[in-house]
Automatic annotation (TrEMBL):
The protein, known as: Sugar phosphate isomerase/epimerase
UniProt xrefs under SUPFAM superfamilies: Xylose isomerase-like
Single GO term (MF): isomerase activity
Lineage: superkingdom: Bacteria
PANTHER family on file: HYDROXYPYRUVATE ISOMERASE, XYLOSE ISOMERASE-LIKE TIM BARREL DOMAIN-CONTAINING PROTEIN
Source species: Halalkalibacter suaedae
Record domain Xylose isomerase-like TIM barrel: where: 23-253
UniProt entry keywords in alphabetical sequence: Isomerase
Length: 276
């Protein structure tokens, strides 16, 4: 298992990348998932790179951004090349994005076909660079349900297309995450771990709210205190595959929650190892 913290968790905090790397290392994380905005804003300080991060015993697990699939093709590919270069700079082959801006059931066949063609173009490019594009399972995108995600994989039919499996959002869609991961396992390259107290609070993860400094955090809870049974999920998944995952925390007390959740995930890994 390789466990990362997400720099997006510190989006409203005044911490430097040096401080985050030092803290991640002291808390026994193996990697950092670097938010695309952070990577772009560090690009004029070239000494921050994969080698620098390795000096802390860390790697970059993934560069997480939002490729503009709805823009012109030249603009989309310009941004793709920029992210690909940044990913190389930070030593990761994984670039995360979303597909579409509305629910799959509300996406017409014509709109879907355009998105699929755009993803294929991106896949062709990143494959030429030795990289993969990870589509995140997320509401109001083409990967908001298991069926639509499997359909997208089939439609794209490209080895560079991989899945960032967000356990909470799979559960949100009404599917058992364990059953979903069994079907998606050959295509999964990364996981996002987060939790919620109950379904009534799921709206707090809507982008307009979760990225806002004054947004509600009601219902956000530590990983093993929420409605999704992560103990059961991890005991099933750890023996099934090598797990590369990020703790994605958007609430208060960031360091305290991430440290505790990281420790608990590592305990579950040891339990799974002992059982198998």
């Amino acid at each position: 298992m390789n466990l990362s913290l997400c720099t997006i968790s510190f989006r409203h905090h005044l911490y430097s990348i040096d401080q985050l790397a030092h803290w991640a290392a002291t808390q026994h994380f193996q990697a950092i998932e670097l938010w695309g905005v952070h990577a772009k804003n560090l690009s004029d300080q070239s000494h921050y790179n994969a080698s620098w991060l390795e000096s802390y015993g860390l790697k970059t697990s993934m560069l997480s951004d939002y490729l503009p699939l709805d823009s012109s093709i030249p603009d989309m590919m310009r941004e793709t090349r920029k992210l690909s270069t940044l990913a190389k700079h930070w030593g990761t082959s994984k670039i995360r994005t979303f597909v579409g801006r509305k629910a799959s059931v509300k996406t017409s066949k014509e709109e879907r076909a355009i998105l699929v063609e755009r993803i294929k173009m991106i896949c062709e490019y990143v494959e030429s660079q030795g990289q993969s594009i990870l589509v995140e399972t997320h509401p109001n995108t083409l990967t908001d349900t298991l069926a639509s995600t499997l359909q997208l994989i089939s439609e794209t039919n490209h080895p560079a297309l991989r899945v960032n499996f967000d356990v909470l959002h799979i559960w949100e869609s009404g599917v058992d995450p364990i059953e979903a991961v069994k079907q998606l396992q050959p295509h999964v390259s990364h996981f996002h771990f987060k939790n919620i107290s109950s379904r009534e609070h799921l709206h707090v993860f809507a982008p307009d709210n979760v990225y806002a400094a004054a947004g509600s955090r009601k219902g956000m809870v530590p990983l093993f205190e929420g409605a999704v049974n992560f103990r059961e999920f991890l005991l099933e998944v750890f023996p099934m595959m090598k797990v590369e995952a990020s703790l994605e925390w958007f609430g208060p007390s960031v360091k305290e929650v991430l440290a505790k959740d990281g420790e608990e995930v590592r305990k579950m890994y040891k339990i799974a190892e002992a059982i198998t």
